[in-house]
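Researcher: We're teaching a course module on how sequence relates to structure. For the next exercise, students receive a sequence and then see the predicted structure as tokens, so they can try to spot secondary structure elements on their own. Here is the exercise chain.
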Amino acid sequence: MEIWINPACSKCRSALTLLDAEGADYTVRRYLEDVPSEDEIRGVLERLGLEPWDITRTQEADVKELGLKEWPRDAASRERWITALAEHPKLIQRPIITADDGTAVVGRTDEAVRDALSR
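Model: And here is the predicted structure for the students to work with:
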């Protein structure tokens, strides 16, 4: 199990606290420092069953600067979104937990973190 975190994020800290309380075996990835490649982002999206715009933090300043809110959310634009996430990792929703069964969850709630633990 791996968890992508930003240590400054309260949701990430809560997820880590819960994982520790449950005795989970996991690896921490500080994704702002250890930036995921486009292939890694594609892999996580597949595991999540989501599209890149589904895991984009739309309130970040970079969103306005890049004009992301106006970008189409369709198959033809998918790679453009993935490139933006790889180039601006702070736009990636957090924390993302990759479960042992090959799936993943966005662990923003205790329920989502527990869901990852049960897989």
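Model: If you want an answer key for the exercise: The chain has a mean pLDDT of 95. DSSP finds five helices and four strands in the chain.
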